[in-house]
Protein backbone atom coordinates (compact mmCIF):
# COMPACT_ATOMS: atom_id res chain seq x y z
CA UNK A 1 0.00 0.00 0.00
CA UNK A 2 1.22 3.47 -0.81
CA UNK A 3 1.06 6.08 1.93
CA UNK A 4 1.41 9.81 2.41
CA UNK A 5 1.79 12.26 5.29
CA UNK A 6 -1.34 14.01 6.61
CA UNK A 7 -1.59 16.86 9.12
CA UNK A 8 -3.89 19.65 10.23
CA UNK A 9 -1.83 22.86 9.99
CA UNK A 10 -2.49 26.59 10.33
CA UNK A 11 -1.79 27.61 6.72
CA UNK A 12 -1.56 25.90 3.33
CA UNK A 13 2.03 24.62 2.89
CA UNK A 14 3.73 25.32 -0.43
CA UNK A 15 5.30 21.85 -0.67
CA UNK A 16 2.17 19.73 -0.15
CA UNK A 17 0.45 17.40 -2.64
CA UNK A 18 -2.97 18.75 -1.77
CA UNK A 19 -4.61 20.81 0.95
CA UNK A 20 -8.07 22.10 1.86
CA UNK A 21 -9.50 24.56 4.33
CA UNK A 22 -11.13 23.04 7.40
CA UNK A 23 -14.03 24.32 9.51
CA UNK A 24 -15.16 23.08 12.90
CA UNK A 25 -18.49 24.23 14.33
CA UNK A 26 -18.69 26.82 11.54
CA UNK A 27 -15.33 28.43 12.37
CA UNK A 28 -12.05 28.19 10.48
CA UNK A 29 -9.89 25.44 11.99
CA UNK A 30 -6.84 25.46 9.71
CA UNK A 31 -5.88 23.44 6.66
CA UNK A 32 -5.74 19.68 6.22
CA UNK A 33 -2.67 18.96 4.09
CA UNK A 34 -1.13 15.87 2.49
CA UNK A 35 2.49 15.37 1.48
CA UNK A 36 4.26 12.65 -0.48
CA UNK A 37 6.00 9.93 1.51
CA UNK A 38 9.57 10.68 2.40
CA UNK A 39 10.84 13.14 4.96
CA UNK A 40 8.23 14.04 7.59
CA UNK A 41 6.96 17.54 6.71
CA UNK A 42 5.79 18.65 10.19
CA UNK A 43 6.34 17.05 13.58
CA UNK A 44 2.70 16.01 14.14
CA UNK A 45 2.14 14.59 10.63
CA UNK A 46 0.85 11.01 10.49
CA UNK A 47 0.98 8.40 7.74
CA UNK A 48 -2.27 7.73 5.86
CA UNK A 49 -3.36 5.61 2.90
CA UNK A 50 -2.42 7.71 -0.15
CA UNK A 51 -5.49 6.48 -2.04
CA UNK A 52 -7.72 8.82 0.00
CA UNK A 53 -6.02 11.89 -1.51
CA UNK A 54 -7.63 13.34 -4.64
CA UNK A 55 -6.97 16.93 -5.76
CA UNK A 56 -10.31 16.92 -7.59
CA UNK A 57 -12.20 15.46 -4.62
CA UNK A 58 -15.51 16.95 -3.54
CA UNK A 59 -15.99 18.69 -0.18
CA UNK A 60 -16.42 16.22 2.67
CA UNK A 61 -17.26 15.88 6.32
CA UNK A 62 -14.47 14.22 8.25
CA UNK A 63 -14.21 12.39 11.53
CA UNK A 64 -10.62 12.86 12.69
CA UNK A 65 -9.40 10.74 15.60
CA UNK A 66 -5.89 11.34 16.95
CA UNK A 67 -4.38 9.65 20.00
CA UNK A 68 -3.52 11.93 22.92
CA UNK A 69 0.17 12.89 23.28
CA UNK A 70 2.24 10.14 24.86
CA UNK A 71 -0.32 7.38 24.19
CA UNK A 72 0.88 4.34 22.26
CA UNK A 73 -1.73 1.78 21.23
CA UNK A 74 -0.70 -1.32 19.27
CA UNK A 75 -2.51 -1.80 15.98
CA UNK A 76 -3.59 -5.30 17.00
CA UNK A 77 -5.13 -4.07 20.27
CA UNK A 78 -8.64 -5.52 20.55
CA UNK A 79 -10.25 -2.07 20.64
CA UNK A 80 -8.64 -1.10 17.32
CA UNK A 81 -9.49 -4.41 15.68
CA UNK A 82 -13.10 -4.21 16.88
CA UNK A 83 -13.41 -0.66 15.52
CA UNK A 84 -12.16 -1.91 12.13
CA UNK A 85 -14.66 -4.78 12.21
CA UNK A 86 -17.50 -2.44 13.17
CA UNK A 87 -16.68 -0.07 10.31
CA UNK A 88 -16.69 -2.94 7.81
CA UNK A 89 -19.90 -4.44 9.21
CA UNK A 90 -21.97 -1.26 9.47
CA UNK A 91 -21.17 1.12 6.61
CA UNK A 92 -18.25 2.22 4.54
CA UNK A 93 -17.55 5.97 4.35
CA UNK A 94 -16.45 7.72 1.18
CA UNK A 95 -12.86 7.24 2.31
CA UNK A 96 -11.14 5.85 5.40
CA UNK A 97 -7.60 5.40 6.67
CA UNK A 98 -5.83 4.54 9.86
CA UNK A 99 -3.22 7.09 10.89
CA UNK A 100 0.23 5.85 11.90
CA UNK A 101 3.67 6.93 13.05
CA UNK A 102 5.21 3.50 12.56
CA UNK A 103 4.18 0.07 11.29
CA UNK A 104 2.72 -1.29 14.53
CA UNK A 105 1.00 1.52 16.46
CA UNK A 106 -2.46 3.00 15.88
CA UNK A 107 -2.23 6.80 16.12
CA UNK A 108 -5.72 7.67 14.88
CA UNK A 109 -8.07 7.51 11.92
CA UNK A 110 -9.76 9.63 9.32
CA UNK A 111 -13.19 8.90 7.83
CA UNK A 112 -14.69 11.07 5.08
CA UNK A 113 -18.37 11.17 4.15
CA UNK A 114 -20.83 13.32 2.22
CA UNK A 115 -22.66 14.29 5.43
CA UNK A 116 -21.82 14.42 9.12
CA UNK A 117 -24.69 12.28 10.43
CA UNK A 118 -23.04 8.86 10.07
CA UNK A 119 -19.68 10.18 11.25
CA UNK A 120 -21.15 10.65 14.72
CA UNK A 121 -21.12 6.82 14.97
CA UNK A 122 -17.42 6.53 14.04
CA UNK A 123 -16.28 3.30 15.76
CA UNK A 124 -12.76 4.73 16.24
CA UNK A 125 -14.29 7.54 18.32
CA UNK A 126 -15.06 4.87 20.93
CA UNK A 127 -11.30 4.57 21.47
CA UNK A 128 -10.34 8.27 21.42
CA UNK A 129 -12.45 11.42 20.87
CA UNK A 130 -13.19 12.45 17.28
CA UNK A 131 -13.32 15.92 15.79
CA UNK A 132 -16.04 16.37 13.16
CA UNK A 133 -14.67 18.73 10.51
CA UNK A 134 -15.96 20.22 7.27
CA UNK A 135 -13.20 19.93 4.64
CA UNK A 136 -13.33 21.93 1.42
CA UNK A 137 -12.89 20.22 -1.95
CA UNK A 138 -9.56 19.40 -3.49
CA UNK A 139 -8.17 16.95 -0.96
CA UNK A 140 -10.22 13.83 -0.24
CA UNK A 141 -11.43 11.35 -2.81
CA UNK A 142 -13.38 8.14 -2.70
CA UNK A 143 -11.93 4.70 -1.89
CA UNK A 144 -13.88 1.42 -2.10
CA UNK A 145 -14.04 -0.79 0.98
CA UNK A 146 -11.47 -3.56 1.35
CA UNK A 147 -12.46 -7.07 0.37
CA UNK A 148 -12.26 -8.18 3.98
CA UNK A 149 -10.61 -7.53 7.31
CA UNK A 150 -6.88 -7.89 7.71
CA UNK A 151 -4.93 -8.66 10.86
CA UNK A 152 -1.41 -7.24 11.24
CA UNK A 153 1.11 -9.00 13.44
CA UNK A 154 4.38 -7.04 13.23
CA UNK A 155 7.13 -8.43 15.46
CA UNK A 156 5.08 -11.36 16.69
CA UNK A 157 6.33 -14.92 16.66
CA UNK A 158 2.85 -16.35 17.22
CA UNK A 159 0.10 -16.12 14.60
CA UNK A 160 -3.33 -15.11 15.80
CA UNK A 161 -5.28 -16.89 17.17
CA UNK A 162 -2.43 -18.98 18.54
CA UNK A 163 -4.71 -21.37 20.46
CA UNK A 164 -6.14 -22.64 17.16
CA UNK A 165 -2.79 -23.91 15.82
CA UNK A 166 -1.09 -27.14 16.74
CA UNK A 167 2.40 -26.82 18.23
Protein architecture, described:
With 167 residues, the chain is mainly β. It has one domain (3-145). 8% of the residues lie in helices and 35% in strands. The chain contains 1 helix and 9 strands, in the order ββββββαβββ. Strands 1, 2, 3, 4, 5, 6, 7, 8 and 9 form a 9-stranded antiparallel β-sheet that branches. A hairpin with a 4-residue loop joins β7 and β8 (105-113). The termini are far apart. The relative contact order is 0.23.
Short description:
This protein has 167 residues and is mainly beta. It is 8% helix and 35% strand.
- Our Rg estimate from Cα atoms comes to 16 Å
User: What percentage of amino acids are in beta strands?
Assistant: 25-35%
Low-confidence stretches: 154-163
The geometry reads as globular
- Helix-residue proportion: under 10%
Q: What is the arithmetic mean of pLDDT?
A: 88
Number of strands: 9
Kindly, what is the distance between the CA atoms of the first and last residues, rounded to a whole number of angstroms? 33 Å
Main β-sheet: number of strands, strand sense, barrel status? 9 strands, antiparallel
**Total helix count?**
1
Helix/strand class = mainly beta
Compressed to H and E, one letter per element, the order equals EEEEEEHEEE
Number of domains: 1
Q: Which tags fit this structure?
A:
8% helix, globular, 9 strands, nine-stranded antiparallel β-sheet
Secondary-structure blueprint of this entry?
Layout: E1 3-9, E2 18-24, E3 27-36, E4 46-49, E5 60-66, E6 73-74, H1 78-90, E7 95-100, E8 105-113, E9 130-135
Amino acid sequence: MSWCWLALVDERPEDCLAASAVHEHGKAAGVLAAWARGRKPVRHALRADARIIDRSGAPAWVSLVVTPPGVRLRFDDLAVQQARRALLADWWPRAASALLRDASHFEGSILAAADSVRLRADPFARIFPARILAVAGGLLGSVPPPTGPAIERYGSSNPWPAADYEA
